[in-house]
Amino acid sequence: MALKARALYDFNSENPGEISVKENEIVSLYSEQDIEGWLEGSNSKGERGLIPASYVEILKNDTAPTFNNNSTSGSRYANIPTGVTSPGFAAFSPPVPVQQQHGYQASQGSDEDWDEDWDDSSTVADEPGVVVGGNYQGDFDGNGPSTYRVSTSTSKSSNVQQAKSSATVSRNLNRFSTFVKSGGEAFVLGDAAGFVKDGDKICVVSGQYGPEWQENPYPFACTIDDPTKQTKFKGMKSYIAYKLTPTHTQTQVNRRYKHFDWLYARLVEKFPVISVPHIPEKQATGRFEEDFISKRRKGLIWWMNHMTSHPILSKCDVFQHFLTCNSTDEKSWKQGKRKAEKDEMVGANFFLTISTPSGPPLDLVEVESKIDGFKAFTKKMDDSVVQVNATTNEFARKQITGFKKEYQKVGQAFKGLGQAFELDQQTYSVGLNQAIAYTGEAYDAIGDYFAEQPRHDVDPLMDLLQLYQGHLANYPDIIHVQKGALTKVKESQKHVEEGKMDAPQADGVNERCNIISFATLAEIQHFHQVRVRDFKAQMQQYLTEQIGFFQKITGKLEEALQMYDNA
Amino acid sequence: MALKARALYDFNSENPGEISVKENEIVSLYSEQDIEGWLEGSNSKGERGLIPASYVEILKNDTAPTFNNNSTSGSRYANIPTGVTSPGFAAFSPPVPVQQQHGYQASQGSDEDWDEDWDDSSTVADEPGVVVGGNYQGDFDGNGPSTYRVSTSTSKSSNVQQAKSSATVSRNLNRFSTFVKSGGEAFVLGDAAGFVKDGDKICVVSGQYGPEWQENPYPFACTIDDPTKQTKFKGMKSYIAYKLTPTHTQTQVNRRYKHFDWLYARLVEKFPVISVPHIPEKQATGRFEEDFISKRRKGLIWWMNHMTSHPILSKCDVFQHFLTCNSTDEKSWKQGKRKAEKDEMVGANFFLTISTPSGPPLDLVEVESKIDGFKAFTKKMDDSVVQVNATTNEFARKQITGFKKEYQKVGQAFKGLGQAFELDQQTYSVGLNQAIAYTGEAYDAIGDYFAEQPRHDVDPLMDLLQLYQGHLANYPDIIHVQKGALTKVKESQKHVEEGKMDAPQADGVNERCNIISFATLAEIQHFHQVRVRDFKAQMQQYLTEQIGFFQKITGKLEEALQMYDNA
């Protein structure tokens, strides 16, 4: 505990695990190593907990500040489009260390890289060296199809793992940094600026249930047909292309997984309070090639369904470029790509494009209560999605292994009885022997039915759950952007009272927070609507499949029973 | 190996494990203790194996015969109704030690004992101190009904154990003694004698498939209604009485388990080559009283069904006395009881009552081939019945525990999802939330269906299997009686060639062996016919129950699906 640091600003803890410090307070640190921008230590009151790394400078033996040299006002926001001009607010927004920049920035290569990527990959999947494992393989006894539920064992690999990570909704160490990164802070502080074209306008309207995104007046859908292997350079290079056909153009385009990946990165960057559906996980190739491609396609269909259902995402330029640009016209593709990557209406500027319904601003207390309610909702939904996922996954595994085995053992036992009875040469027993043999086969078949069933009902359900786990993992960040804005409003009121800020400036903060609140509530409303739509459809499909399954079993047993009529 | 013995007669080994000895040959014995009438030792040729205990006298140090003093010709057959008059044949039929008399003799008490029994028992079941255990309790996890499949853990306890003991069909050390005990030997040797009344006549006829028992011209059935607690002596004594109503009298009589037990002992004693169905196992009382009584009743129904289906058993006096004697008329019951216990037409004399179809005698080679075929059949049927029993027992256990648990876990997961969704107060999601909650309940109910199902299909199947395991345990003895008779025929032919027997005497042996063969084949034919009838009916019932079960599940899921129509 020799490691000491000096607080550069006041920090008021807001969550369990955080500790408050005053400017110039000397704190003890357990380690110089930050955890996602936070340092562990104790303050002068002896309270132990987390302090934003950017709020302190570590005091080395020579007591000279050797850390956070770039954390002086102004320079430490270098990674944000606009500078911070209000030191009073900065105390609530520790900056993000540079190494924690958004993970998807890596996808934004140069055009040269892109061309390289486009042409140079001959693997079916786009990622090398990922170990393939089956979800059910825990105590897989070899009776089920070995290709079942292939997924990677790397980060975000299994649904359960992913769900667990998204289950930590209530404890997000990046609370502040999200607000900053997203541009939320810059926008609220009035530092976002850009020219908003009419086409960029995004409208929030007052709907039956509160703020809603204005519906896309030209709704469309997009099919994704079975992918095919494409070749280039006289067959020297090959890759898998998915055939996309949007209903509004009726023109098929070919897209590879990496194009989806690139698009996803653009969308995440552009829309700070919109939950962009996650694209299917990156997976390895291997001997399960067909299963893998089929599974990825299903994931992409779910993804596409959510994209085209979303009033804002469905209309945006980069998505339209992705859907409509001729796959073979590389020049026009590059132009659209460059334009998207140079889009100025991203992050903080996105909020500039939002127009709210006319009328009074939202009641902040009501907004906060709604957001808190939604936070509790996502937490509980996340828990139960994890539960349903784990349970149905285990249920599927049991059907593939145990259930199948039990029914087939019954089948074998009946077959054995039929064989024993065949030793009796009496003519009057021939019919019975055949009927018993058929009964044995029926139970054998029923065992197979059980093993085959999960791919018809559990798998689609799990695909849906996976998509929603992605959304649930997005929401903490979205909530934090809104919460950050609310905090700014409260602070501005305080500063006005203290005479540190004039009223018009505070009104501007209020107004801009109001925009963020409208957008967030509209997005939450959209989430609930598609959630109800999707889960209703999926539960209906699940039950319909289950009914068909038990009817198939009944049918098989009825066949067996009929055999005894002539026995 | 100091223990020596002298062979009293020639013995020619016929089965693996036996060794041959000549009269006066000195053999070494491993022990003075016989195993079911056999001694282990080695002959003068150094061959090791089994020798009938009654064929040797053990030579003690003083070389005086101190063992088998009663095994000299004439006196050693004291336990057989008639003396052995043909020493030449005796060599093939070692007598049975007295301690091995038929186990059911113990049931034949005096009238005083009977009255004592009749009046003095106040327990519900008739046997004390038997530990109760559940068939499925191996790794019973407490989810199933704890009263399930109660059975005793004593001898002949579990079906599997019983089946295993009956599975040792091919190696019966009592081969000879069964033949002797049953009276088969005495009859074949012409030593059975008695006055056969017309009413005692048992006819074997030539049927479509070979020898058959003549059908009972007055077939009847008998219902067993739910037993009631009866009291005597102003309520001081109580017992459980089963209400029997035979269709040919339409008069209800009350019978206790011990009456069934007494009757069973009479039947086994009387009919050497008829497979008397086993009565349900003796069981303990306990907190599962109702289940226990219900299970015993089901077993007695099966037993009764087989009794009334059998052309010979159904007609016999002791059974008719049991079915028709007024339960409250103790005097007339005692008379019938005494008469049955003094019946002379039992064992050897039973064969005197049999009349065979007119025409040529059976071809002995063909008979032997049929008997061998049936022996192989029973062996294989026994194996497969053990298998079906063990498999369905395990299948039932899995349904009660694992299957139930899996479906209810799915139900819980769906319920949890519905509860999470209820946190969202949107009016448009109420229907979905209710539908998901109902789906959860449906899977919960399906779990219960799985747990309840075995008592509707597996249990009746297992009851049938248990009855047949009893028959399969009877057949080795029946086969040995017939085989013993065949051996006598072969020996008589040899003795005629050797001039030790005259032709008319040998013809008599042939003729009497022919009667035993007719009876045995008639019994085998009857067995096949009821087997085909019973298994056909039971498999139909099983499948019908299974179909109903899966339809019930389907119905429940359809109800759940309909909930989404208004969601």
TrEMBL record, chains A, B:
Protein name: Sorting nexin
Pfam families named in the record: BAR_3_WASP_bdg (PF10456), PX (PF00787), SH3_2 (PF07653)
Biased composition (Acidic residues): 110-120
Domain of life of the native organism: Eukaryota
Keyword Oxidoreductase found: no
GO CC entries: cytoplasmic vesicle membrane; plasma membrane
Gene Ontology terms for molecular function: phosphatidylinositol binding
Biased composition regions of type Polar residues, renumbered to the chain: 98-109, 144-159
Places the protein is found: Cytoplasmic vesicle membrane
CDD domains for this protein: PX_SNX18 (cd07286)
Domain SH3: 1-61
InterPro entries in alphabetical order: AH/BAR_dom_sf (IPR027267), PX_dom (IPR001683), PX_dom_sf (IPR036871), SH3-like_dom_sf (IPR036028), SH3_domain (IPR001452), SNX18_PX (IPR035703), Snx9_fam (IPR014536), Sorting_nexin_WASP-bd-dom (IPR019497)
Species for this entry: Salmo trutta
Region described as Disordered: 88-159
Family: Belongs to the sorting nexin family.
Residues where a 1,2-diacyl-sn-glycero-3-phospho-(1D-myo-inositol-4,5-bisphosphate) binds: 256, 258, 296
Biological process terms in GO annotation: cleavage furrow formation; endocytosis; endosomal transport; mitotic cell cycle; plasma membrane tubulation; protein transport
Domain PX, first and last residues per copy: 220-330
Topological relation to the membrane, as annotated: Peripheral membrane protein
Gene behind this protein: SNX18
Protein keywords: Cell cycle, Cell division, Cytoplasmic vesicle, Endocytosis, Membrane, Mitosis, Protein transport, SH3 domain, Transport
